[in-house]
Amino acid sequence: xxxxxxxxxxxxxxxxxxxxxxxxxxxxxxxxxxxxxxxxxxxxxxxxxxxxxxxxxxxxxxxxxxxxxxxxxxxxxxxxxxxxxxxxxxxxxxxxxxxxxxxxxxxxxxxxxxxxxxxxxxxxxxxxxxxxxxxxxxxxxxxxxxxxxxxxxxxxxxxxxxxxxxxxxxxxxxxxxxxxxxxxxxxxxxxxxxxxxxxxxxxxxxxxxxxxxxxxxxxxxxxxxxxxxxxxxxxxxxxxxxxxxxxxxxxxxxxxxxxxxxxxxxxxxxxx
Length: 272
Known about the structure:
The protein is α+β, with helices and mostly antiparallel strands.
């Protein structure tokens, strides 16, 4: 059973469901509805749970601050993501709507743009999420009249990835930062610029990402190439060792020793 807390507009409702807050979106679902009204379901409404840990007071305050058009826009962006990925955690609705609302206000009214230096890495790591975010920019422009910057498209892609991986956006951003710095170390140590659009570099970036995931989860690798790479490709192996040391220091977690040789293989392939 749902009980309406607040009718946000004709297309959006905030309601209780089993003592938890839910946002319902759908064309015309708020028309004629009133706070306190109860219902089993509304035809055509999509239900959005909120992120775990959000308190009722913070949810209500956030919904009161965010213009409903941004909730509707993010609802459409989530629909786009579901067409690509089948399912996504709809709990990103409120934080992403809040982010976009603030970005539009900042760019449209104050002419302030927040740079996103990790756009190239985001495109490589999360290409499908970025493609959805590009469509999201079109949705936002259609609904608000504001065309957000490419930097913001990158941030939206991180939110989408968060909804797919259940990894907090800040953690995803930290991962992207570590990978970006690791690529700079590799270029410096190998004495050449990597071709970011090459297949070998894309595989290197993907390897760095899953290497970080393995380290966080404690998963090991079943291959030890350290001796072979140290003998055959000492420069790539030394570069991999430096990158692993950087990751250990930044993450505060030990990197499995087998990761060095495995990473060196990808560095050697990307640097030839």
